[in-house]
Design goal:
The structure holds two protein chains of two kinds. Chain A is built from 14 helices and four strands. Chain A is mainly α. Chain A has a single domain, classed as ABC transporter involved in vitamin B12 uptake, BtuC (Orthogonal Bundle), CATH 1.10.3470. Chain B is α/β, with parallel strands linked by helices. Chain B is built from ten helices and ten strands. In chain B, the strands form two sheets. Chain B has a six-stranded mixed β-sheet, with helices on both faces. Chain B has a four-stranded antiparallel β-sheet with strand order 2-1-4-5. At the A-B interface, helix 9 and helix 10 of A face helix 2 and helix 3 of B.
């Protein structure tokens, strides 16, 4: 009986635990620093959400473990870097409008180019290994090597400094709390992306079919929907989200480098495991938990920052093995 | 005698390494309900999943309305007018009843709306729980939703896999009534272990055993023949 109640309320208990964890650092962190770290954590969380949501929906619907997601993330950063290079005058201008125009164009270019790369990847490579996780891991890992080497061919092997649009790099000073503008932009972009994805998934027929496909692919096919076309579209959308995440993260971290996808992919998988595969809300909550934890712990115990997230992942897996918001299957 | 809408000829199919269908042959005549009966593991569900394209056939031919469909993909087969209600009902539990129906509707035109209304008249509970999560429906309501989804399109052939499974007798009677209404609009192929249901709706029967059809005929004759029922279905005179 106790076990049943615990199981029934496990998600609520875990969320309550997360809220407690969210407030706990207040004990060791001064109030103003806590607000600054919280905003940094939320921004990092939103950037992770952009990457993790793609991983989550690709796995949730297609049952594909896409280890090339990190490389697509890096491609997004490099395409944005190139666009910024062409629009350097707008990027360096002391004009919010021109900065946003450059940022928007870079986002569109990164998402379109990487979505096309994603389509090629799905059609040529991934489609051949549906149903076999081992081959998916091997083949997408191979694709990662190819995509990263292509970055070295097209853009060179060295790290590059990513230019931040001038007005984005400035801070707001609100009652002695320093708030970086770009972090707020990241939070807004993340929320907008979450809203758009939810709108598509909940309010459009295409979204309903995708959600149905996450639960039962065979049945969706047996209802007359071309699941393979849907797979390609979802893979492209996931790749585009990775690109957006890559571009946004490269501005956040002020650099681009060919291997940049690897470390973020690890975080993305932690997020997806915490949030539950196939759930966009799960990805958002998981990403915020990871982003906030990383920032709080990095301030309090710097050497334990990455380990703390892995610890949270293990705890959540023990309490709720399918993640906080798992769907289907 | 009416022409068959579906012909399954010497179809073989494997699941993994297991040779499940070993040369199944049957047809579904227009304006009739054809029932595949047989013990557990005889291959009945595999047959209709193979017709639906969800399991590839390794040999043989499946012809629907004169076109070979055994090499087509499931979504192409569905778009030709074949509806499918799987054994597990295939309900999208996280979607509402309305969303389940909308996913099933290939086009949302006047004719589809009329068919939807007809389905909702047939299964009034679906209207009642229209905005509710399908996962919260009872077993019988889920079966009703599964059938409603399959008939909302212009379905000429409906494949239903064990609709009575796990349902209370009163719900089974409601499903029988529904199938009797559906057969006015669609040809039905029913996989069923429950002989009461099979004999209540079936016009023709095929008894399957070990991945093959071992006996076929008119349902009325099987109902009367106690020896055959006892031999192939293990049904004694005293009841099923």
């Amino acid at each position: 009986m106790e076990e049943t109640i615990f199981k029934r309320w496990s998600r609520e208990l875990t969320i309550a635990g997360a809220i407690v964890l969210f407030l706990l650092p207040l004990i060791g962190i001064p109030g103003k620093t806590y607000i600054t770290l919280t905003i940094a954590g939320l921004a990092m969380g939103m950037l992770l959400f952009l990457v993790a949501s793609g991983v989550s929906i690709i796995f949730g619907l297609m049952d594909v473990l896409n280890f090339a997601h990190g490389a697509l993330f890096a491609w997004g950063a490099y395409v944005g870097f190139t666009v910024f290079g062409y629009l350097m005058k707008w990027v360096e201008a002391d004009s919010v409008l021109q900065n946003f125009a450059a940022f928007s164009l870079a986002i569109v270019a990164a998402m379109v180019v990487v979505a096309l790369v994603g389509i090629v990847l799905e059609r040529v490579i991934v489609r051949r290994v549906y149903g076999s996780h081992l081959f998916q891991i091997l083949i997408t890992f191979g694709a990662t090597i190819v995509l990263v080497e292509l970055i070295r061919v097209f853009w060179g092997p060295n790290d590059e400094v990513m230019t931040v649009p001038l007005t984005f790099s400035r801070n707001w000073d609100i009652m002695d709390v320093i708030i970086n503008r770009y972090r707020v932009i990241c939070i807004v972009v993340g929320l907008v992306v979450y809203g758009v994805i939810q709108l598509i998934l909940k309010k459009t027929k295409l979204g309903m079919i995708v959600r149905a496909g996450v639960e039962d692919r065979d049945m969706v096919q047996a209802m007359g929907h071309n699941i393979f076309l849907l797979f390609t579209g979802v893979f492209a959308a996931g790749a585009a989200l990775a690109a957006l995440g890559g571009l946004a993260m490269s501005i956040f971290s002020l650099q681009v480098y060919p291997d940049m996808g690897g470390s973020f992919l690890l975080f993305a998988f932690i997020v997806v495991i915490i949030g539950g595969l196939g759930s966009i809300t799960g990805s958002l909550v998981g990403a915020l938990i990871v982003g906030l934890t990383y920032n709080y712990v990095a301030y309090l115990v710097p050497w334990a920052a990455a380990g703390a997230n892995i610890m949270i992942m293990i705890i959540i897996l023990l309490i709720r093995p399918t993640g906080l918001f798992s769907v289907g299957k | 005698m009416s022409e068959p809408i579906l012909k399954v000829e010497d179809v073989h199919a494997f699941i993994g390494k297991h040779h499940i269908l070993q040369g199944v042959t049957f047809d579904a005549k227009a304006d009739a309900v054809t029932v595949l009966i047989g013990r557990n593991g005889a291959g009945k569900s595999t047959v209709i999943r193979t017709v639906m394209g969800l399991i590839p056939s390794s040999k043989g031919k499946i012809v629907y309305k004169g076109s070979e469909i055994h090499k087509k993909k499931p979504y192409e087969i569905a778009r030709m007018g074949i509806g499918f209600v799987p054994e597990n009902m295939g309900i999208f539990a996280g979607l509402t009843v309305e969303e389940n129906m909308r996913v099933a509707m290939l086009v949302e035109d006047e004719a589809t709306t009329q068919r939807l209304e007809r389905a909702l008249d047939m299964f009034a509970d679906l209207r009642k729980f229209w905005k509710g999560k399908a996962g919260n429906l009872s077993g019988g309501q889920k079966q009703m939703l599964a059938i409603a989804r399959a008939i909302v399109n212009d379905t000429a052939l409906l494949l239903i896999d064990e609709p009575s499974k796990g349902l209370a007798p009163i719900i089974v009677d409601a499903v029988i009534e529904a199938i009797n209404q559906i057969k006015d609009h669609s040809v039905v192929v029913l996989v069923e272990q429950n002989f009461y249901m099979a004999s209540s709706v079936g016009d023709y029967f095929y008894i399957m055993d070990d991945g093959m059809v071992v006996l076929s005929g008119v349902m009325e004759a099987l109902v009367r023949d106690e020896e055959l029922k006892s031999k192939y279905l293990g049904i004694s005179k005293s009841g099923d």
